[in-house]
Amino acid sequence: MPDITPDTLNLTPDVLIIGGGPAGMSVAIECARAGLVVTLVEQRPRLGGAIFRQPVNGVAPLALAAGPERLKARLFKDFAAQVARIHCVYGALFAGLDADGLAIVEDRQTSRVLPFRPRALVLATGAVEAVLPRPGWTLPGVTTAGGLQVLMKETGRAPQGRVVLAGSGPLLLALAAQLIRLGRPPLAVLEAGDPIRRPGASLALLAHPSLVSEAASYLATIALARVPWHRGAQFERIDPCDQALIVTWRDHKGHLASLAADHVSLHDGLAPNNFGLPAEARGGVKSSAGNPLVIRVGDCREALGAAAAVAGGEATGRNLAAHLLTGGEVIAAEATLARHRSAQHHIARAFAPRRGQELATQLPDDTVICRCEGRTLADLKKLVAESPGLSARELKLNGRFAMGACQGRFCASNAARLLGELSHSADQVPVSALTGQRWPLRPVSIAALAAAVADAPQPGSSTKDDKDIR
Amino acid sequence: MTVIVAGAGIVGSACAYFLGQAGAQVHLLDASAPAAEASGAADGAVSVASKRPGPLMTAALSGIALYRELEESGPLSGLFHRRSTFIVAASEDEQKVLETHATALADAGVVITAIAGDDIPRRFPALSRAASLIIEVQGEGHAIGYQVVHRLIAASGATVHRSTPVTRLVPDRSGTRLAGVETPAGFLGADAVVLATGNGSSALLGLADVLTPRKGQLLITERDPALNAAMPGSIMSGRYLLSKGSQKTASAAPAPAGPARGFGLVIDPLRTGQFLIGGTREDHGNKQETDLSAVSRILADAVALVPDLARLRLLRSFAGARAAVRDGLPLVGRLPGLSNAVVATGFEGDGICLGPVMGRAVARLLLDKEPGLDLAPFAPNRFQSSGDAA
Amino acid sequence: MTPATFRWMSQDVPFRPGETIAAALSAAGVVSYGRDQAGAPSRYFCGVGACQCCLVNVDGRPIEACLTLARPGLSVTPLELDHA
After folding, report:
1. N or C: which end of chain B has fewer CB within 10 A?
2. Residue from the list A46, A141, A147 with its beta carbon closest to the beta carbon of C46
3. What ipTM describes this predicted complex?
4. Residue B382, Cβ neighbours under 10 Å: how many?
């Protein structure tokens, strides 16, 4: 591939890291310590990722629980010690790995496409939130819990008006505690699971004291502010009403209840942010000629949280450096992750929804499944009914699920799950059948892509006698 | 009559549809799933604009007429988007070649209009001011391959067998007919067999020297209804004709250390408000991936002709492998020596345009009716004299 | 000192340096971003550029409000108003 880049930037670093959260920072630190040429690409203007997101200048960061706070301090201190040897490209998005083995980055600062050819490509893109479809989830005023947290962490402000948090998982509790500390307690937290009634799972968590103390601090904050934590709440719908949103749920006894709010934040768990990411090539496997070694670290490999991301990132970074400098295998830090895996397993069990979660029978037919293309449950049901044995790819092409601008990040897993439910298939429908592995992973500026060729050497003369255009 | 149609692309689906209409019981087999190969990765042109007079142009004109018919009579209602193709010249050389091409099209009975001067921005506001001549080829259209396949299969009444590749053709005792086909799920018998297996036909029929994959890369943008409305039809760059006419010009860029590839620019405004932009022709079948070099080149050409595309974002890139025959013509007809077996493949980039009409021709062959199209130039045994198998 | 602002519809929206367009709109109480090119309601949702729900036109180009830093004097409009 021709060199088609700004002169100052090294497009062939030893290690190109995508994502400046705990995992990416940890790999960068270890590789820089070992003397490798490291470039780190981060889509936001600051490092830290979702968990250690830093505020804009002049704003005090939101307080974290003691454990994460210590981890953050150490991570940033270690990074600062190596910062001169790590080239950070901020405001730049990873667009994927192309057929020629180029790692394509859209640099929004310079409006250019940067074709990197590193020796190793480390993907540290973190986690994404799962959000189940419900009537009204596409309304203005409805965000993901993580989305609300981004605003609060970066600006130090909570949104104006009444907030309801709904879905499932410990993040809802963390977010509630943060809202309370900013002086805007949420009206309620609606939790589909009931950790208190799953004593087995909750007791198992006692083996993880740092998690227990973190959870206890959130719960104490919430209790003190008298914010109701409705467990076993089956979230039904959001309806617009004048300027407000009416949130309706079924309580643990099956009774309907509702609240008027200005903001609703949804969250149904975390999943690796691995949409369309190139496949890993690690464990001593030689990458194909010219293509970088591809490694995933942190939550995009397995959503185990920040401590695991740092532990895994450090171990993988050391292995990778050794591999690039002297050869040898690149081994995942499996042993260090076992403990985190067990903790996440117990958390998932504790927060498991109390009721059955068959979406296809729970949701009204007009529920939007794919927001980008405006496709509903009825559209999906119709396709499945008229085509027995419908494959996920056919569902995508003919139903337009995962065909929109988000490329399936918010509908592919739900559509795959619904396809499984409706076709009564025992096998899980792979989400990747809907999302694929093609670049661009994100919509990329055509102006920037078109300009990438301008600096390239002129193409050679034609050697083909084309009979026809098609 | 029970018929096995192998290959649930557009040709096989159309064949299944017409056989179903005639009362046949059809088993439609596919190695993976309907429209999984070229039919699901095509640009969707139903067009003669780039054709030279000859059997392919004749077939394409019948193909377009059949789309109109199926659109009006029901089976493809709403799926055939009628629009003109605009071939655009943006230099003196391109203009000369385009004028010659326009004369050939007109002589063949294609309805065309020349647009020049101030009429260009009036008729085609999105176009760059560099455009000096447009030939509007009327009466054409666009159809999305996988949608057509889906609709035809649903209307065919055929039984679809996914993940069921044909691994072997099984002759009966006479040796002059097929008893059926072998699949991983076992033997499947039928009165007749249609092979519409695209690139899969090479291995099945021993056509490695005749039928080869030809990759194409295609792009889809995000929506822009305003820009879409400023494009009354699809654009084809006249630069492509230039390379066809005078050869060896700048229209093909070899990939670094890779096989040669050609670029032919087409921009199609889709009914979603998106734009489909293509594409490449590459002599290999590594179909899964696209590369920055090609994508950048295609987009640079596209922006040069439609400058406002620069403000949009690329949503998707994808690639497919056309099944290309050595002499540029498809293989359609009875398999030599087998009276109840028909092949229909090798349509290269014309499958969407020709799929329905060829599917119908093949169905008619099996039903002992006139195919409605002169299939002689497409005879599958035409390479045999030179020692090739077919 | 008056804070820097950008233009949203008929409104001057103040922001602090380093804030995204989405953060500034949220602080100004703007929840709805109009409709997108497919007719779906646009609004802030995931905050990390994944969902594409917060696309706005900045200088005539669609871009994620949640990833794009506010700059003084920017003209930010809903997608559906774009008829360039």
Report:
1. N
2. A147
3. 0.95
4. 18
